[in-house]
Amino acid sequence: MSDTTAILSDVQYSMDASNLTTASIGLAASRDARLGYFIGLPLHRLRGDHPPDRQRDVLPKDLHSVVLSGAVNYELSPKYSIGARQSFDFGPTRRC
Questions:
Q1: In the prediction, which pLDDT does 83 show?
Q2: pTM of the entire predicted model
Protein backbone atom coordinates (compact mmCIF):
# COMPACT_ATOMS: atom_id res chain seq x y z
CA MET A 1 0.00 0.00 0.00
CA SER A 2 2.83 2.41 0.91
CA ASP A 3 6.36 2.46 2.27
CA THR A 4 5.01 2.30 5.82
CA THR A 5 1.92 0.09 5.41
CA ALA A 6 1.63 -3.45 4.07
CA ILE A 7 -1.18 -5.96 3.67
CA LEU A 8 0.02 -9.49 4.35
CA SER A 9 -1.73 -12.75 3.48
CA ASP A 10 -1.01 -16.45 3.53
CA VAL A 11 -2.85 -19.58 2.37
CA GLN A 12 -2.00 -23.24 2.92
CA TYR A 13 -3.57 -25.96 0.80
CA SER A 14 -3.44 -29.66 1.69
CA MET A 15 -2.78 -31.68 -1.44
CA ASP A 16 -3.44 -34.92 0.49
CA ALA A 17 -6.93 -33.91 1.62
CA SER A 18 -7.56 -31.60 -1.39
CA ASN A 19 -8.73 -28.70 0.73
CA LEU A 20 -7.71 -25.37 2.18
CA THR A 21 -6.32 -25.79 5.71
CA THR A 22 -5.39 -22.25 6.75
CA ALA A 23 -5.71 -18.71 5.48
CA SER A 24 -4.70 -15.42 7.03
CA ILE A 25 -4.69 -11.71 6.35
CA GLY A 26 -3.06 -8.89 8.24
CA LEU A 27 -2.02 -5.26 8.20
CA ALA A 28 1.43 -4.09 9.30
CA ALA A 29 2.12 -0.38 9.65
CA SER A 30 4.81 1.98 10.85
CA ARG A 31 3.52 5.49 11.46
CA ASP A 32 6.78 7.15 12.52
CA ALA A 33 10.37 6.12 13.21
CA ARG A 34 9.44 4.72 16.65
CA LEU A 35 5.93 3.23 16.42
CA GLY A 36 4.87 0.11 14.55
CA TYR A 37 1.80 -2.10 14.81
CA PHE A 38 0.19 -5.20 13.34
CA ILE A 39 -3.34 -6.58 13.25
CA GLY A 40 -4.10 -9.96 11.74
CA LEU A 41 -6.78 -12.59 11.33
CA PRO A 42 -5.62 -16.19 10.77
CA LEU A 43 -8.24 -18.87 10.10
CA HIS A 44 -7.22 -22.44 11.03
CA ARG A 45 -8.74 -25.83 10.44
CA LEU A 46 -6.85 -28.48 12.36
CA ARG A 47 -8.41 -31.58 10.81
CA GLY A 48 -8.07 -32.54 7.16
CA ASP A 49 -10.17 -35.72 7.17
CA HIS A 50 -13.49 -34.50 5.74
CA PRO A 51 -16.08 -36.51 3.81
CA PRO A 52 -15.49 -36.52 0.03
CA ASP A 53 -18.48 -34.28 -0.67
CA ARG A 54 -16.99 -31.53 1.55
CA GLN A 55 -13.31 -31.76 0.58
CA ARG A 56 -13.41 -28.87 -1.85
CA ASP A 57 -15.15 -26.37 0.45
CA VAL A 58 -13.15 -23.20 1.10
CA LEU A 59 -13.11 -22.54 4.88
CA PRO A 60 -16.18 -24.70 5.62
CA LYS A 61 -18.53 -24.69 8.62
CA ASP A 62 -16.20 -26.90 10.68
CA LEU A 63 -13.57 -24.16 10.79
CA HIS A 64 -11.77 -24.75 14.05
CA SER A 65 -10.25 -21.43 14.99
CA VAL A 66 -10.63 -17.74 14.19
CA VAL A 67 -8.05 -15.70 16.08
CA LEU A 68 -7.76 -11.90 15.94
CA SER A 69 -4.24 -10.79 16.88
CA GLY A 70 -2.77 -7.38 17.42
CA ALA A 71 0.69 -6.14 18.33
CA VAL A 72 2.36 -2.80 18.91
CA ASN A 73 6.04 -1.93 19.25
CA TYR A 74 7.48 1.38 20.41
CA GLU A 75 11.18 2.26 20.32
CA LEU A 76 12.11 4.12 23.51
CA SER A 77 15.71 4.68 22.41
CA PRO A 78 18.11 3.07 19.92
CA LYS A 79 18.92 0.50 22.61
CA TYR A 80 15.47 -0.15 24.16
CA SER A 81 12.00 -0.82 22.85
CA ILE A 82 8.74 -1.98 24.39
CA GLY A 83 6.10 -4.16 22.80
CA ALA A 84 2.73 -5.72 23.52
CA ARG A 85 0.72 -8.41 21.81
CA GLN A 86 -2.83 -9.69 22.37
CA SER A 87 -4.91 -12.40 20.71
CA PHE A 88 -8.61 -13.21 20.92
CA ASP A 89 -10.01 -16.60 19.84
CA PHE A 90 -13.48 -16.33 18.32
CA GLY A 91 -13.64 -20.00 17.33
CA PRO A 92 -16.13 -22.56 18.65
CA THR A 93 -16.05 -23.25 22.39
CA ARG A 94 -16.45 -27.03 22.17
CA ARG A 95 -13.31 -29.14 21.99
CA CYS A 96 -12.45 -31.66 19.27
A1: 97
A2: 0.63
Compute the distance between CA of residue 65 and CA of residue 21 in angstroms, rounded to an integer. Answer: 11
pLDDT score, position 65: 74
pLDDT of residue 20: 76
- Cα separation, 96 vs 92, in Å, equals 10
Mean of the pLDDT values across residues 43-51? 57
For residues 66 and 40, give the distance between their C-alpha atoms in angstroms, rounded to a whole number.
Answer: 10
- DSSP secondary structure, 30-84, as one string: E-SSSEEEEEEEEEE-------GGGTT-SS-TT--EEEEEEEEEEESSSS-EEEE
Q: Are 71 and 85 in contact (CB under 8 A)?
A: yes
Closest C-alpha among 51, 67, 65, 64 to residue 19: 51
Strand order in the sheet with 35-44: 5-14, 19-30, 35-44, 65-75, 81-89
